[in-house]
Amino acid sequence: MRDYLLSGSFNHSSPNIVHIERNLKEKYVYMSKIILKVIEGRNIMSEKLIRVGTTYIPVTDVDLSTKWYVSNLGAELSYKDDDKAILNLAYQSIFLVKSNKEQTSNFFDIYGQEHFSMTFEVNGLSALENLHKDFISREMRVGELEDRGHSGRNFVFYDLDGNKFDVWSELSPRFKEHSILFSKSDSVQ
């Protein structure tokens, strides 16, 4: 693709070329902002921890749980053996680790309320409502849509072992800013 673009032997009005040019322009603007920060002497890596790369989830049956995560959540299987499976889901690695029965990633606060340890994000209320309906149609254990007093709405769902997860209708601003680059660059190969 690089050689093709550099050769100059393409039709600039082609829809694919217009998309590629727009994508390259967006990347150029993004990189220009980083370069400007460096020139101004600002530390572009001011955070010590950049992102969460891996989450470990206890499961009693690695094979059955892997199938559930792949078919219900759209996870992609990277590796599996008798004791663990590595899945790609929501821009991170999820390790399903064979554990004892009744072991979950959930925890209880000082008032005895059970909490989830992870919140997934979707892009807007409509996406949240559609996902909620989809999970119900798959006969997954799903809570009601909730208004928790902050922006957006949420609902919880559970996997086969009772691991509780949250879904929020708002993408975090930083991810939303960077996801434009991810989604466009993934489609141009």
TrEMBL record:
Residues 51-170 form the VOC domain. CDD domains: VOC. This is VOC domain-containing protein. It comes from the Bacteria. The lineage of its organism: Bacteria, Bacillati, Bacillota, Bacilli, Bacillales.
